[in-house]
Amino acid sequence: MILALDPLYLTNIGLAVVLIALLKVVLAFAIVLVAVLFMVWFERKVIADMQHRIGPNIAGPWGLFQTLADGLKLLMKEDLVPEHSNRFVFKLAPFLAIVPAFLTFAIIPIGGNFESKGGSVRIFGYDTYLQVADPPIGILLFLAMSSIAVYGVMLAGWSSGSKFPLLGSVRASAQMVSYEAALGLSVLAVILQTGSLSTHEMVADQAAGGFLGFIPNWNIIVTGFVPFLIFLIAGTAELNRPPFDLVEAEQELVGGFHTEYSSFRFAIFFLAEYLNTINMSAIIVTLFLGGPSGPVLIEGIDWAWGILWFLVKLFVFLFAFVWFRATLPRFRYDQLMDLGWKLLIPLSLGWFLFLAALNIGNDRGWNPGVVVGVTIVGGFAGGALLMAAIRTARTERISQEVDAHG
Amino acid sequence: MLGQYLPLLALLAIATLFSAVSLVMSGLLAPSKPTPPKLDAYECGIVPSRDTPARFPVRFFLVAMIFIVFDIEIIFFYPWAVAHRGLGLFGLGSILIFSFAVFESFVYLIGNGALQWGPLKQVAHPDGSVSSKRTTTTTVRRVGLEDRIPGPVGTEEAA
């Protein structure tokens, strides 16, 4: 197994290396903050356009500084801690929401020349990757951080000492953990192709080769679209974004888990939400669309092309998330749970086993047709079993209801 | 090897510091005039009449418990996925047996109704029929009509 490691830290870690690492961290932090500011503006502007409104247009050119103005306003608003709240947990929860969101960004490769230089760039005479860190655990960090983010939501609602935040956070936690299972299973399909957990390796793997000379070797094609679709749906649910935003269904729950938060504590939750949207889009691009890999059209500034391709792909998904919000009506809670547990999880498990069998069959020279045939038979058998179980549960419930109410 | 985690630590520190400093700044800049209504639980302007319920539907606990089991099982797939080409046929057989065990317990849970969230309305009248005896006059109890003079149209007597 090859462990992709940032070459920067393979040499002796001296002062220069530490300084470069710090520079990367500070730069990434600044980029993320600015990106979030513009993401909020972008979402408001696009939704306004889709609803035939103008949207923010006062602060700065085209309202570009609207988010900054909102942030400054929130900074100067009164910060309330409800008296029924658990004060320590109430103050801890925003940190648990924002810190994981920042850390997730660290594993995303945002640039580099994957055509000929393996994705590394030279800064001050040191080779390094254009990503904050490339730890061996790679994509597991993303899953771990999204698990910790559940704590932020859960504790925020629980510690508020108020009923709407509690209901919102209980809903949110159940939703997020449900879809995390589907998310984890669909990432497995990519790991089967790459054979590594490192995000850099995943991009490098997708940058190499291709079909017919012009179709790229992206995992969205190699893994057969299904894991990509599952990841996109589960990711949207994980973000609590429409159409899965039951967490903050205004008609039922006021503002959801952050109802009691005001001032900058609220701003931090807001920041984390949009940061997670950007992260999720970037993770989708990294896993399925080849990240910053792409042709270098002009030699010399080869590092800039990686960033350009990455941004182009990222924007597709940022726009898609806004588009979902403008278009799709909200799910009902039982529909949400049924979709996650009864469709996405079994489907992604089955697809994972199919891809694994294809890989191993390929190594051993089996006929792929046989693997596909066995998968179809197995899939139908599993599907029939699942349908029977769903039917049993339903008839059981109906007879209980009839017994209870006549 | 551990050097790879150095920037992560730095980012952790910066993110925490950023949040902490902004909160302190907000504390310095913002006014602070707490009043009892402000500090009460927000319930759309109505004074809360009872405490926050300490209990919520058991289904949420069930989902959390099921999730822990499934998440651990999914994590077992990860090392296998990284090493699956080296493990060959033996590995494929093992993971199929393991997946069967996972899937079987999953089907058992669903069959037991552990993940049944459906609205009661659909379930209560499975064939879509409601007894014809149940009308607005039989199910709505009218009170306070005893001493009243019957109205002209649209009241009980007129109907």
Could you explain how this protein is built, in words?
The complex is a heterodimer of chains A (406) and B (159). Chain A has helices at 15-50, 66-75, 87-105, 139-159, 163-194, 199-207, 219-222, 226-238, 250-253, 263-288, 302-327, 333-364, 368-405; strands at residues 120-123, 126-129, 210-211, 215-216. Chain A is mainly alpha-helical and 406 residues long. In chain A, helix 3 (87-105) packs parallel to helix 10 and helix 5 (163-194) packs across helix 6. The N and C termini of chain A lie far apart (64 Å). The mean pLDDT of chain A is 86. By secondary structure, chain B is mainly alpha-helical. At the A-B interface, helix 1, helix 3, helix 5, helix 10 and helix 12 of A face helix 1, helix 3 and helix 4 of B.
Labels describing this entry:
heterodimer; A: 406 residues; mainly alpha; two-stranded antiparallel ribbon; two-stranded antiparallel sheet; 13 helices; 67% helix; globular; B: 159 residues; Methane Monooxygenase Hydroxylase, Chain G, domain 1; 57% helix; 0% strand
CATH superfamily grouping of the domain at 56-116 in chain B: NADH:ubiquinone/plastoquinone oxidoreductase, chain 3
Separation, N- and C-terminal Cα atoms of chain A: 64 Å
The number of helices of chain B is: 5
Strand content of chain B: under 5%
Give me the Rg of chain B, rounded: 31 Å
Mean pLDDT of chain A: 86
Number of strand elements of chain B: 0
| Strand segment count of chain A | 4
The number of helices of chain A is 13
Helix content of chain A: 55-70%
- The low-pLDDT segments of chain A are none
What is the count of structural domains of chain A?
A: 1
Strand order of the largest sheet of chain A: 1-2
Tell me, rounded to a whole number, the average pLDDT of chain B. Answer: 79
Structural class of chain B: mainly alpha
Which class best fits the helix and strand makeup of chain A? mainly alpha
The biggest chain-chain interface is: A-B, 104 and 80 residues
Q: Roughly what fraction of the amino acids of chain A lie in strands? A: under 5%
The CATH top-level class label of the domain at 56-116 in chain B: Mainly Alpha
